[in-house]
Write a structure and sequence with these properties.
- The complex is a heterodimer.
- Chain A is of the alpha/beta class.
- In chain A, about 35% of the residues lie in helices and about 15% in strands.
- Chain A is globular, with a radius of gyration of 18 Å.
- Chain B has a single domain, classed as Translation Initiation Factor IF3 (2-Layer Sandwich), CATH 3.30.110.
- Helix content of chain B is about 25%, strand content about 25%.
- The chains are: A alpha/beta, B alpha+beta.
- The structure holds zinc ion.
- Zinc ion binds next to helix 8 of chain A.
Chain lengths: ~270, ~90
């Protein structure tokens, strides 16, 4: 492809980088990334992916912008309260970069639609806030061999990693099944420092871009844990579990599972 | 190849010629790099600039990124040429 004059200026700082260059920028412009969740993690992640010139950015979220979201979900404004998050997100990205084709899905993901949602995308970003979604996305990415960039936040702590099917562990290698309902407080109950998803979501964007470019070392096999109170990053080695019910030697999960929502508040929204 | 690109040498052994007069840094390098991506390792790019700092900035960046700057010449009152051989495996 030939860059337009505007693109040469817009992506100049990428083109200068030896690891990106014009060729890398072309890869970004022809790539398709699916962002599941347009909230706290999705906002910074989607913003940077859009600014970077990801050619097609899919965004999945069935939720509506609430005033209580704005403390951390920085791509929605006060005027967006009451709108679909994906519509507000699309406006924000298009304001930054008209090169990005934004495709919105006002769907709640489940075992019936997840494969169809992810099938056309090169990289999947899990920016959701609940266990059923995490397991569903992990399992679907495993079955469909899609690289997955995982992130989660809780109070002052964030976790982020990359799952590459066949090349490393999956989410179930860490936690083979969801915790029992009631044991884990939901994000809504626990509270979260507004800037925390900004840090984790930006790292997710960073990893999604590296996977797309094929440069550097991703977080595949490493869980990066960020403590915002002590301001520390620690790293945990992750190993593929031979007994993993999904990607192990004798898997017993052969199809997608819809787990129940644990969070009671969730149903009241 | 030695001696081929002496000052004022006008041979046409360039795989590509890029006239970016009027352009300033860092876009002089950005455009030069994009042009270089279109040719093969070992091939030669001739860049013409009229922004004087570019005759230091562009060659430095080219060298940093593994290319070979063959010569830098003033070609008239306002313009300069930078001759670069693309690096990498031939
Ligand atoms: Zn596994």
């Amino acid at each position: 492809m030939e860059f337009t004059e505007e693109q040469i200026k817009r992506y100049a700082r990428h083109i200068i980088l030896p690891e990106v260059g014009g060729e890398g920028q072309e890869k970004l412009l022809s790539s398709k990334i699916l962002l599941i969740g347009a909230g706290g993690l999705g906002a910074p992640c989607g913003y940077y992916l859009g600014a970077a010139g990801i050619g097609t950015l899919g965004i999945v979220d069935f939720d509506i912008v609430d005033l209580s979201n704005l403390q951390r979900q920085i791509w929605h404004g006060t005027k967006d309260v009451g709108r679909y998050k994906v519509d507000s997100a699309k406006d924000s990205i298009e304001r930054i970069n008209p090169d990005v084709k934004v495709i919105t899905y006002k769907d709640k993901i489940d075992s019936a639609n997840i494969k169809e949602l992810i099938k056309d995308y090169d990289v999947i970003v899990d920016a959701t806030d609940n266990f059923p979604a995490r397991y569903l996305i992990n399992d679907a990415c495993h079955f469909m061999n899609k690289p997955l960039v995982y992130g989660s936040i809780f109070r002052f702590e964030g976790q982020v990693t990359v799952f590459l099917p066949d090349k490393g562990p999956c989410y179930r290698c860490l936690f083979s099944t969801p915790p029992p309902p009631g044991l884990v407080p939901s994000c809504q109950e626990a509270g979260v420092l507004g800037v925390l998803p900004g840090v984790i979501g930006a790292i997710q964007a960073n990893e999604a871009i590296k996977i797309t470019l094929g440069v550097g070392n991703t977080l595949n096999g490493r869980l990066l844990i960020y403590d915002a109170l002590d301001m520390k990053f620690t790293e945990m080695k992750l190993r593929k579990d031979k007994c993993c019910p999904l990607c192990g030697e004798n898997p017993n999960i052969l199809d997608l599972i819809d787990y129940e929502e644990f969070c009671e508040l969730y149903h009241h929204e | 190849m030695d001696g081929l690109f002496k000052e004022n040498d006008r041979t046409d052994n360039y795989a590509k010629e890029l006239n970016i007069k009027g352009e300033i840094c860092p876009f002089t390098f950005v455009r030069s790099k994009l042009a270089l991506e279109k040719i093969k390792p070992g091939e030669i790019l001739r860049i013409i600039v009229d922004y004087e700092p570019a005759i230091r900035n562009v060659p430095r960046s080219m060298t940093d990124q593994g290319h070979k700057v063959l010569s830098i010449n003033k070609i008239n009152d306002t313009d300069y040429e930078i001759i670069v051989e693309k690096g990498g495996k031939k």
